[in-house]
Specification:
Helix content is 29%, strand content 27%. By secondary structure, the chain is an alpha+beta fold. The N and C termini lie close together (11 Å).
């Protein structure tokens, strides 16, 4: 378990939220709050220059787009409908109206794809040599399906991913398409037991589903859909397992539900079966030669 996951679990243990008012609390992609008879879900993500992007290599429009897309991907992870966002920025010296307008263009371009409006925020400015930071807080609402959590994986479930994995650092991480529409369609074509978006790497995010659900998993190396960019690496499989920032969906569902989804799925985005949920409470990977070894969570760790 990574340091980030460990402290998040500690935070969750300190929480005494009433389930009637807060059906989903700390430890998932979004928290759910009951407001009268309705529910609203909320997430927040902070991105830093030098960590999540490099301003010397990325435009402010790309940065604004990514900041919104990361939170939109959280909505996708739970198969919910994005509604609105507020954005706060910490500007370095030299930033002014021109830079903010370019940033705004990227933010709104991402939001408009999914009907998610920018409704406010905050602007602050550093006095020294500090770097740019941007934080998005986003609201969503349930679709016709219930929000899909990380904690519902069951022994015997099929493990699936969308798209391809690995190599996102080249460019995809700045221009990826959040799987909002696909997530809702998947959740309405079949009963999905658990889901997460792959932000820190397949190995780390699968571990989060396993820990939240109290189960284990075994995935097959040959089935993992490796991106063309990752195939250029010295170790393509390692890239697909650990690179992160793929922002694809990782989900589990029963065998019958998988067959139903497989029959009904007509979208251009591929859905790949990569393994199964086990009772071992540990992650394992099966190599092409049939050998099975333990799989460590080797993705990005924010506190390492």
């Amino acid at each position: 378990m990574s340091g980030e996951d460990e402290i998040t679990e500690w935070f969750a243990r300190q929480s005494k939220l009433a389930a009637a008012d807060f059906p989903i609390g700390i430890g998932d992609d979004m928290a759910e709050v009951r407001v009268g008879k309705a529910s609203v879900l909320i997430t927040t993500d902070m991105l830093l220059d030098g960590v999540h992007f490099e301003l010397g290599k990325a435009t402010l429009k790309q940065v604004g787009y990514k900041a919104m897309a990361v939170s939109l991907s959280d909505c996708a992870a739970m198969a919910t409908i994005p509604v609105a966002a507020v954005v706060a920025v910490a500007l370095p010296k030299g930033f002014g109206k021109k830079e903010l307008k370019e940033l705004h263009h990227g933010i709104t371009a991402a939001g408009k794809k999914f009907g998610c409006e920018l409704i406010g925020g905050d602007i602050t400015k550093w006095k020294g040599k500090e770097r740019f930071a941007i934080n998005v807080a986003m609201l969503s609402k349930p679709a016709a399906n219930k929000p899909v959590r990380r904690s519902g994986a069951k022994v015997g479930d099929v493990i699936c991913v969308t798209g391809t994995l690995g190599g996102a650092g080249a460019r995809k991480h700045l221009e990826f398409e959040p799987r909002v529409k696909e997530a809702i369609e998947i959740a309405q074509k079949a009963r999905i037991n658990s889901m997460i978006d792959i932000s820190d790497g397949l190995s780390s995010d699968l571990n989060r589903i396993c820990r939240a659900s109290g189960v284990g998993a075994i995935i097959e190396a040959e089935r993992i859909p490796i991106s063309d960019e990752a195939k250029k690496r010295k170790d393509p499989l390692k890239a697909a397992l650990n690179d992160g920032e793929d922002f694809e969906l990782l989900f589990t569902l029963g065998e019958k539900e998988y067959k139903k989804l497989h029959q009904r799925w007509e979208g251009p985005m591929p859905i790949t079966r990569i393994g199964a949920i086990s009772s071992s409470k540990k992650m394992q990977i099966k190599a092409a030669d049939g050998r099975i070894r333990d799989l460590k969570a080797g993705g990005y760790n924010h506190l390492k």
